[in-house]
Write a structure and sequence with these properties.
Elements lengths: L2 E4 L6 E3 L3 E4 L1 H5 L3 H16 L11 H18 L19 H12 L33 E2 L5 H20 L7 H4 L4 E2 L2 E2 H13 L2 E8 L9 E5 L5 E6 L6 H17 L5 E6 L3 E7 L18 H10 L5 E6 L13 E6 L9 E4 L5
Helix pairs in contact: 2-3, 3-4
């Protein structure tokens, strides 16, 4: 999917989801195994949507975190990790977001802004003294955010590749951890959910700063600017939700917190009434009691949001879909994260678990 182009502007290699840029002298010195690693590493950044998941994190530190996440996956699947690549067994089975937080604590004190968007850490990488020149810096650049069309194309290509690999019983080890994709009727519910959240985070245009893509032509076009997303998450704790399912709902809530650390989330615990309301932001510890066990009535949650969180942009409701619904849809978007396929009168449903 990447068009290969030599470029003297890059030291090693870089990719923007459309082109694979490489320094010819660097590539000429690489072994076949190193080239296999480089190309796979570049593709995996796009397969795992690392550009879209950055969300305001420091560019070079995020690049390092995503490299660690990918390279532990490649090592687990038998690819040789060249000397100088960012690899550490300690980060195995960790999300890039989790690794980022660990690296931030390792390299920088709280509030230290000495590390910028493009300056890499000065210590902690796996380069070894005396290593061959071509493997001293085996980390490429992942440049620019993908446009919507390219993002969709990568998602489609990824879906096809996974389907083929699954049929051949050759799905790479570790994908269930890093991608965490559960499907129902061919729909990747997490991709749909994260796309919906991202849509609200970047849905306004502004001239400050301008779109840099056309500046060289003397044309100043507006760029996408992020609105403050007000996300509500409701978790159904009624008697029809057993402990296993409730635990799954809570785990998915934690995953959202991890993947969207900049988003403030209003968490509502409810069955036939609202039992509690908590406010969380990424990085905070999740420590709260879970009350419930009664019937299921969705109306109190919508009434509570209208009365207490009126500026909400989206409601994500984890439930089994068996309860009393409001007669009219609210002014904000509603996503029903369902444990099984069920009818909903409004909003969009995402079925988390396939029926057995």
């Amino acid at each position: 999917r990447l068009k290969h182009e030599p470029s003297e502007d890059v030291r090693t290699y870089a990719s923007n989801g459309v082109r694979f840029l490489y320094n010819e002298s660097f590539i000429d010195r690489c072994s076949t195994e190193a080239l296999m690693f480089i190309l796979t590493n570049a593709v995996m950044h796009h397969v795992l949507a690392h550009q879209q998941r950055r969300l305001g994190r420091k560019g070079a530190l995020w690049q390092l975190a995503t490299d660690y996440a990918i390279n532990t996956l490649l090592h687990r699947n038998g690819l040789k990790i060249p000397t100088g690549a960012n690899y550490d067994k300690a980060y195995e089975k960790m999300y890039a977001e989790e690794i980022y937080e660990a690296l931030k604590e390792q390299f920088y004190a709280e509030g230290d802004d000495a590390f910028g968007e493009t300056t890499p850490p000065q210590e902690g990488t796996k380069s070894q003294e005396g290593a061959a020149e071509e493997s001293i810096v085996l980390s490429g650049e992942i440049r620019e955010d993908l446009d919507t069309q390219t993002e969709s194309e990568w998602h489609y290509a990824d879906s096809v590749a996974r389907e083929v690999a699954t049929r051949k019983s050759a799905l790479p080890s570790g994908f269930e951890r890093l991608a965490k994709k559960m499907r129902s009727s061919g729909i990747d519910w997490r991709f749909e959910l994260y796309n919906a959240i991202n849509k609200h985070m970047r849905n306004n245009y502004a001239f400050m700063p301008p779109n840099k893509k056309h500046i060289y032509r003397g044309i100043a076009l507006p760029s996408l600017a992020s609105d403050t997303l007000s996300l509500c998450v409701a978790i159904d704790t009624s008697g029809s939700i057993d402990e296993t399912l409730l635990g799954a709902f809570l785990e998915e809530f934690k995953a959202i917190m991890t993947n969207f650390p900049a988003v403030k989330i209003e968490l509502i615990i409810a069955d036939a009434k609202v039992h509690a309301h908590y406010t969380f932001q990424g990085g905070e510890k999740l420590d709260f009691p879970v009350k419930g066990g009664g019937g299921t009535d969705y109306r109190p949650v919508f009434d509570y949001i209208d009365g207490n969180i009126p500026m909400s942009t989206m409601l994500l409701y984890f439930t089994d879909g068996d309860g009393w619904f409001p007669r009219r849809p609210p002014h904000y978007e509603v996503l029903w994260a369902l444990s099984r396929d069920a009818k909903v009168p409004f909003g969009r449903k995402l079925v988390l678990f396939s029926q057995k």
